[in-house]
Amino acid sequence: MSSPREDIGGSASESAEQMPKQFRRDKRDVHGWIVLDKPIGMTSTHAVAVIKRLFSAKRAGHAGTLDPLASGGLPIALGEATKTVPFVMDGRKRYRFTVRWGEERDTDDSEGRILATSDCRPADDAIRALLPRFTGLIEQVPPQFSAIKIHGERAYDLARDGEAVELKPRPVEIFELTIVNQPDGDHTVFEAECGKGTYVRSVARDIGRLLGTFGHVSALRRTACGPFDERDMISLEQLEALCNRAASGEGSLADALLPVETALDDIPALAVTRADAARLHRGQAVLLRGRDAPQTNGTVYVTVGGRLLALAEICNGELIPKRVFNLTGLVASPLRQ
Q1: For position 199, what pLDDT does the model report?
Q2: What CA–CA distance (Å, rounded) separates 177 from 192?
Q3: How, if at all, do strands 187-194 and 93-101 pair?
């Protein structure tokens, strides 16, 4: 469930005016991705604040809210990586989640108020028979407690104020939905790979209704988000230990960063000369000539000397810069490239 109050608390929320001068850290340019293995109970906003403080970074943002109830991959963009956030948000996500049968709750997870109960428990084959109905392009009604805006207000704010929230069905895509195991009669563990805007809480609610048993999500973990998976995740404890080692000269925070262009794995790369790079950096288009010039149109990311320079569009033999990157400051270690 997305929290309407994303209290960041502690030193991460202290303003510069409140902090004694001797304890202020100068903000610096940091560019890259941190894929935080977010712990249960932490809001996404708090997580961004903590990472921003650890790196003393000037800019940071996340690529898709992960509910406080959930754990797992929260991609956090630092510096120029924030320009690539949409590419991660538009990517596929993978979740492992547990459905608790016998109760439907107003939040569709374990934090909510019980709305309906049932003594029935679903058989394995009955659950499996329904999975094709929740695979592919489907219509889904989001949870009442969600971040969707209604007339400028977040649905969860309206729901908490006691207002009736009526959300219309929306098209979403679920590429895969499978049963992992059933530890007992009250619970079933699923895995889902889905597109942008899909709520697994809605999946749990709707399957429970069709089975006549009701259900809600009791545990949720995001195992992949766009190009990032569990191999890329790092815990807060690991980051804090790395910070301590870096402060004593035994390493660098750059070792924790993934390159900005990691978010662009699905986009073709195009290398240009330094002369063309100078034009693109000034926002000027470049004509693509010669036998090696791309013959297609579309988005590419441009490199010069192996370094990310810009996001650009190829249109009728012309390379038009859309986003230019300035990667001066702390960037990913060469070992992470």
Answers
A1: 92
A2: 4
A3: antiparallel
User: Is-contact 220 200, C-beta < 8 A?
Assistant: yes
Pairing of strands 71-78, 215-225: parallel
Please indicate whether residue 67 is annotated as part of the active site: yes
Beta-carbon neighbour count of residue 322 at 10 Å? 11
Question: What does DSSP assign to residue 250?
Answer: S
pLDDT at residue 16, as a whole number: 37
- Catalytic pick from 26, 29, 37, 67? 67
Please, where are the H alpha helices in the chain?
44-55, 85-89, 124-130, 155-160, 200-211, 236-247, 274-281
Contacts of 204 (CB under 8 A, 6+ apart): 97, 99, 108, 215, 216, 217
pLDDT of residue 15: 37
Q: Which residue has the tokens 């104020």?
A: 161
Q: 3-class DSSP state for residue 115?
A: strand
Query: Which of 55, 60, 58, 59 lies closest to 74 in space, CA to CA?
Result: 60
Tokens of 28: 């610096």
> How wide is the angle at C-alpha 239 spanned by C-alphas 68 and 334, nearest 5°?
125
Tens-digit pLDDT profile for residues 251-279: 888 999 999 999 999 899 999 999 999 99
Q: Which segments of the chain have a pLDDT < 70?
A: 1-25, 145-164, 291-292, 334-337
Look-up of token digits 């890329």: 232
Q: Distance between CA atoms of 325 and 337, rounded to whole angstroms?
A: 17
Burial class (CB in 10 A: 0-12, 13-18, 19+), 167: middle
Q: Is 122 helix (H, G, I), strand (E, B) or coil?
A: coil
CA–CA gap between residue 54 and residue 187 (Å, rounded): 38
Tokens linked to 308: 């990310």
